[in-house]
Amino acid sequence: MSKQPVFRFAPSPNGQLHLGHALSALLNHDMAKANGGRFLLRIEDIDIARCTPEFEAGIVDDLGWLGLDWEKPVRRQSEHLDLYRQALGTLIDRDLVYPSFLTRGAIKVMVGEFEAKGRSWPRDPDGAPLYPGEERKLSPSARQRMLAGGKPHAWRLDMARALATLDAPLTWQETGTGPNGETGAIAADPGAWGDVVLSRSDAPSSYHLAVTLDDALQGVTHVVRGRDLFHATSVHRLLQGLLDLPEPVYHHHRLILGADGRKLSKSNRDTGIAAFREAGKTPDDVRAMFL
Ligand code: GLU
């Protein structure tokens, strides 16, 4: 008998859910039901500065109102920080990550100065400037000195080294579509992200590390999420390869755009699920909008 499918909806409680989240949650829930699978809710709250219990309560309220039910207890990432630290420790021991003391602001200034000379700096798939990579070359003793000095730092993946550990090119199975209609067997391209952050200076993990570990630990077989995370899957596939984790099937769905044609944001109250509830709409009205 094949394995029971496991789906999850994994919001971050740093704002109110909007209609894009509603689509994601409904799709996960409905696909789980249609395939005799399990449906999990995971709260991705490693960013303690921005996530609040009030937003989490709002998420639970909104999903309940939509008519969804999920398994309990709900996994909260802030309760599993040791797990992420442990995985990072494995990568430190294997010399696949290095401490990075440059702040995002400092990188921005460096890139700005470079581009002011009329040259363009390479960008990651989200359009952010790639990390310059200078600190990769720090000597072990200089690294130790800076760490011992207690300077805040992130840990970055040494992408070239990580890629060199692979026996074969990475792919994934896409049952949805990417931004350019990509579907089926997709060739992963983690190198496009440069030396990604796996542990932040202000949190013990990054999104990439926590999401990959949790999907594996919770036995998630199908990752159904917005198309904005299509390219991030390349990093997740690489981490699965490095940490010997199973590979789920991926399904990226379309994004719901606002009247201005842009991706919805959690700060825009008009497109929040809560605003719909208050306006007297029903869960069926929400479903009718996109399912
Ligand atoms: N926590 C992420 C977000 O709210 C989603 C993670 C995922 O589905 O992989 O955007």
TrEMBL record:
The keyword Transferase is annotated on this UniProt entry: no
Keyword Zinc-finger: no
Signal peptide: none
EC number per UniProt: 6.1.1.-
GO MF term list: ligase activity
Glutamyl/glutaminyl-tRNA synthetase class Ib catalytic domain residues: 7-284
Taxonomic superkingdom: Bacteria
UniProtKB keywords: Aminoacyl-tRNA synthetase, ATP-binding, Ligase, Metal-binding, Nucleotide-binding, Protein biosynthesis, Zinc
Similarity section: Belongs to the class-I aminoacyl-tRNA synthetase family.
Protein name according to UniProt: Glutamyl-Q tRNA(Asp) synthetase
Organism: Rhizobium herbae
